[in-house]
Amino acid sequence: MAKELWKGNEAVAEAAIKAGCRFFFGYPITPQNEIPEYMAMKMPQIDGCFLQAESEVAAINMVYGAAGAGARVMTSSSSPGISLKQEGITYIAGAELPCVIVNMVRGGPGLGGIQPAQSDYFQSCKGGGHGDYRLVVLAPASVQEAVDLTQEAFDIADQYRNPVLILGDGMIGQMMEPVEFTEVKKRKLPEKTWATVGTKGKRKTNVINSLFIDPADCERHNFHLFEKYAEIEKNEIKVEEYNLEGAEIVFAAYGTTARIVKNAINSLAKEGIKAGLIRPITLWPFPAKAFEKAAEQAGVKAFMSVEMSMGQMVEDVKLSVNGKKPVYFYGRTGGMFPTPKAIAEEAKKILGGAK
Amino acid sequence: MAVVFEKTRGLAEKPFHYCPGCTHGIIHRLVAESLDELNLIDDAIGVAPVGCAVFAYDYFNCDMQEAAHGRAPAAATGIKRVNPNAAVFTYQGDGDLASIGAAEVVHAAMRGEKITTIFVNNAIYGMTGGQMAPTTLVGQKATTAPYGRDENHAGMPLRVSEMLATIPKAAFVERVSVHDVKHIIQAKKAIKKAFQLQMEGKGFTLVEVLSTCPTNWGKTPIEALKWLQENMIPYYPLGNFKNIEEVK
After folding, report:
1. Could you tell me the pTM of the whole model?
2. pLDDT tens digit string along A165-194?
3. How far is CA B32 from CA B53, B65, B118, in A?
4. Which residues of chain B does A87 touch, with a Cβ-Cβ cutoff of 8 Å?
5. What is this model's ipTM?
6. B31 found inside a domain
7. B144: CATH
């Protein structure tokens, strides 16, 4: 298939349909409206179901019901709406239901703004809702990658019976880029023998539930979840390493910001400064080993996390670098972008200080 | 000897955890018998609430999902859209449905979701220990209304059936009670009708069942039944509020 020009939000919706998603429950919020709009147009043509819920709270609980009934199901929203979905997300994680959630992040806190941001990293990777649980968090840096990751997200969700979050931002959702839809590598997926579809009188009843009233049972359930999360950490880490060889400074950045950082790296190279980038594609599981390894590189003087936030992923970078090298932070927030020039200036300041 | 009564196969073997004199057990039986008699139990998917009936997923002998507080109609929407031929029902108390889940039930009715909601109204939060519900009567004492519900402070109790009956896509709305045998028989008739209309694709169906809470009302089971009759029925009149078959 030739490359076509697609808007990020619509491309994500089409990728979901291509991955077999036939149920979508959503609620309008900028800057992700093209996803529900696309679904509203397409689903009736393919015997799927698009439903505009009365709220984000209802939408995520419709996802809970549909996922519990064994369907491939998705919802999408943006930051304030994702906050509302947190109740449903922790129930989905607790009941071990597969689904895909898209967050096209905008500035916060509160109503914030409608421009791109990365200030939902904590919410995505460190809980969001109550209890001990993890989402698989995928952070695309281009429309093409958003398409590929969305398709794979459904398989990851089904393989582990776990919700998967696509963490984009207003930029990924709103910009147009050339895209090629390719088949994702098929995984061997378990049968959904647990789904509530009616017993048909042929088996014991299936129950979708996250309540364990006996604390020993509840702890056992948590242990089980964390065995699963360990498996995901072992199998599913994705990371891009760029220009690390001989780097004096290693940037950490994901999504849209990683692309801006690459421009900064190129302009630093012109000044004879070698800089590299570690770009986590999975924010959880976090590619800690890539940072550990880079911290061992003799030539690396410092790390710098660049984010469209006040500094969130930088905490995981620090944990991974583990004091071996200094870790700095530079960010813009509220819908503002760091410029390549500003990033390069910050890097030079750090290297000057580190010499 | 002729069998005059048998436990329905719509109920699982698990003993109920409900307090002595609580009418949840009767209502569970009526729902389970209705599903069994309509030959729907093997195709049924129920949604349990948060509240006293939270363990309903252990009691009904069909596939079940446990929903977040108040969200059962949204979860049931997802289930029904995936399984359009299944008999999907929610079983919810007054705190779950009329307070935190008010939006979900109103919009499920608005969309005409082809589900059946069993709404158990005992005018109090039972599981959490007797707090005021949106259906607590004026003057009725609760742990969070220790001087009795004051209508100037906490408003008037919500008449859910009357409200939902105004919604065009609500196909069947009836309020019943289970305080004596005659009313139990009427309640079952309504529940059965609701499931029938759901399966005929007529729209959203709801049966509100007036129920007792001897423990949190501070009454014996017999006093509680009497209190329901004398205090709840005057404010929550029994009867059918909507039947699509009779709407011309």
Report:
1. 0.97
2. 999 999 999 999 999 999 888 899 999 999
3. 14, 16, 12
4. 68
5. 0.96
6. yes
7. 3.40.50.970
